[in-house]
Design goal:
By secondary structure, the protein is an alpha/beta fold. Helix content is about 50%, strand content about 15%. It is built from five helices and four strands; from the N terminus they run αβαβαββαα. Strands 1-2-3-4 form a four-stranded mixed β-sheet. Helix 2 (about 45-60) packs parallel to helix 5 (about 145-160) and helix 4 packs antiparallel against helix 5. The longest helix has 19 residues, at about 1-20.
């Protein structure tokens, strides 16, 4: 009887863990730079505006930045999920690993910026956190997700060109 209870508890534990993990969807047939998956946070015009900006940047620098908006990470660490998403979708140029994922889990109130190896010398975890804290979060707190993503991508551009200035007052 004791073994049966132990087996049941272990099975219950492992089933709950497997349900909590976020499953990265397959690469969409139509690839772009802004994705809203299972939630609508940005309007169609805001998506188009942000896409144009990110595509122009990619065309001029070869660094691909992808913004992904999801409802929840389902308990997954957002930084780990963003890094795995970039790997899974092959964001950035092959051989250069110069992709960047900006991931927003709206209902979790979490955001992450993860850089591929080709850009992480300039866009470090520390710089990503500064962008999130000084540019993105203040806009998100006002409920303006487009402005937060727009200013966040500007911050990424500035870091990559060496022009980033933190605007938040201490």
């Amino acid at each position: 009887m004791k073994n049966l209870v132990t087996t049941f508890l272990l099975a219950f534990f492992f089933v709950n863990i497997s349900q909590a993990q976020f499953e990265i969807p397959p690469i969409p047939k139509k690839q772009t730079s802004v994705y809203q998956l299972g939630i609508e946070v940005l309007s169609a015009s805001e998506i188009k505006s942000l896409e144009r900006k990110l595509v122009r940047y990619s065309d001029s620098t070869s660094t691909q930045i992808v913004a992904i908006i999801i409802p929840s990470t389902k308990g997954e660490d957002i930084n780990y999920l963003a890094a795995n998403w970039g790997e899974s979708w092959g964001i950035g140029q092959k051989g250069k690993d110069n992709g960047i994922v900006l991931l927003l889990a709206r209902n979790d109130r979490k955001v992450a910026i993860q850089a591929g190896r080709g850009t992480e010398a300039r866009l470090t975890d520390f710089m990503s956190k500064k962008i999130i804290d000084s540019r993105i979060i203040p806009e998100f707190k006002k409920g303006n997700y487009y402005s937060g993503l727009d200013k966040g991508t500007d911050g990424i551009f500035e870091v990559l060109t060496g022009e980033f200035k933190e605007t938040r007052k201490r």
